Amino acid sequence: MTTMTTPSNRAMPSTRGMNFFTADANLLRALRAYAEPEDVERALPHLEEVGRCAGEELDELAAIADAHPPVLRTHDRLGQRVDEVVYHPAYVEMQRLGFSKFGFAAMSHRAGVLGWPGRVPHVVKFALSYVFVQSEFGLFCPISMTDSAARVLRMFGSPELQERYVPRLTSTEFSELMQSAQLLTERTGGSDVGASECVARLVDGEWRIWGEKWFCSNAGADVHLALARPAGAPGGTKGLGMFLVPKMLPDGSRNRYIIRRLKEKLGSRSMPTGEYEFEGATGYVVGAIDRGFPQMAEMINVSRLSNGMRAAALMRRSLLEAAVHARGRAAFGRALFELPLVREQLLEMVLDSEAALAIVLFAAQALDRADGGSEHDELVVRITTPLIKYANCRRARWTAGISMNLRGGNGYIEEWVNARLLRDAHLGSIWEGAENVVALDVARAASRNGAHEALFRELESRLDGIRSEEAVSEAAAVRAELARVRRQFERLLAAGEEEREAKMAAMCDRLAAAVCTVLLTAEGDREVRAGDGYGKLLAAREYRRRYLERVDPLEADVAVHRWLGELVDGAPVPASALG
After folding, report:
1. Cα–chain-centroid distance for residue 510?
2. What CATH number should be reported for the domain whose range is 180-290?
């Protein structure tokens, strides 16, 4: 972990100028546990460049764009309606970095991005994104929606729609790029999508859409994937169709909708969110017209996984800020890093951060396998994605808050990054479904698809693969806890609807802890066998005790604090640390 040396920086240490990848020894070790060895080696120079960029120009641009949010220009000087979103140059430059230099929205769809021989695997894409998002959260909403729109069109779109839009949605040439947005939420139907009132009618052989959408992130996008109910279709989600609604029609005219206003938001202020009103807008049917919601769910699930990755990135940046500050700042004659209560708080941040990254890379690995045709992994993705969205986003709020608290007054000042991290962390729990919605989606994935059975089989398989002596001993304790969580989960699924729904959030806390405990233990075993020490296994044991077994904090063993520096830095920890 880099620390600054000038007197002023010792008083107010900063992370600006650090390489966010090389400062994070855990990321590379975790990536090696989930990605193919050749993919890891090929990714290394790109991870280093994203890390350098994140700690230098991207961090500066993000602060400027957050302070100068986009504005809506509704009319031109002749009084004609234009609905143009005007961005600060800092945001435009961030778009160039994300879409063009690094090609985040393109790398899952076309060969050659970053010089890759084929398409970049999801697990590598999420690792690269994780580093980028540590400096800029808001832009990754447009990146994710553009990425997932291309995915949905490739899965469900007609050949004509694919030919017209996918190449530009996946372009790394900024002048050719089309960005996408998702139009789902209405005033009458937020979480209850089936209550949506937007209607689609055939007019002269063309679908036209009327109604409003209350939230559109990336307002002003080139294309929009929108849900609307064809006239005469049944109510609820089963009656909704999916339509691609372009900003510009093939003849060069503007489509028939207006952007009423941009929202003033707590977080993600660099990226515009607006209200739309359709006035007979032209829309092109995507897929089966009576399968709009299930098709949109594909876009939502990929966005949810991206959201969980962003939460993990916020947690990592919060930890980095707290550790650098605590090491460089003194109080009462001692570095903050040496104060026992600070060490306890930093330890929890380490555990949270490493667990959040593990479950994201685990899901990304399963998504790669599911895209390769694995039905087992498709089920794993189906239940793990809402679980990640629930657990990572929820814990990110605590981590960002503690990081701000450790920095003290400066943490509350907008000139430092902590305030932005905290604001963005709160948004993560709302985007693509609030906590209650995604917790119940975990239950639906289990009850409708039996996805929990695939997840538990996968976790057992990971434990079966553990080989080192110390990890085998730890795995036995983990296996017993995993069996207990499975029994609790299956009992709750069998309970009455009221009890099941009332307790599902608490169950998701427990299930996420079980998943992360298994993954950390398996990672720890891998690191032991690779000669990287026992730090991850120590972290896995502490995570199990604190989050899965729920040991009384007043009964916790603080001997682990001795190894905090090594855990933060990824330095070797001896076997004796396990006791």
Report:
1. 20
2. 2.40.110.20
- pLDDT tens-place string over residues 431-483: 888 899 999 999 999 999 999 999 999 999 999 999 999 999 999 999 999 99
* Residue ranges per structural domain of the chain: 180-290, 435-552
Question: Which structure tokens are listed for 65?
Answer: 């764009």
What's the rounded Cα separation, in Å, for the pair 320 and 403? 9
What are 554's two structure tokens?
Answer: 């007043």
- Paired residues of 258 in beta bridges: 277
Instruction: Please choose, from the candidates 535, 528, 540, the residue with its C-alpha nearest in 3D space to the C-alpha of residue 478.
Output: 540
- Phi, psi (degrees; rounded to nearest 5) at 227: -100, 135
Reading the block at residue 285, the tokens are 């049917």
| Tokens coding 91 | 């945001």
Instruction: Return the structure tokens found at 244.
Output: 């691609």
User: Are 18 and 55 within 8 A, CB to CB?
Assistant: yes
SS3 content of the chain, % helix, strand, coil (to 5): 60, 10, 25
Q: How far is CA 112 from CA 15, 99, 107, 119, 148, in A?
A: 33, 14, 8, 7, 19
DSSP string computed for 426-478: HHHTTTTS-HHHHHHHHHHHHHHH-HHHHHHHHHHHHHHT--SHHHHHHHHHH
Residue 3 predicted with pLDDT over 50: no
Report the number of secondary-structure helices (H) and strands (E) in the chain: 18, 11
Q: What pTM was estimated for this model as a whole?
A: 0.95
Beta bridge partners of 273: 217
* Tokens 């890390």 found at: 51
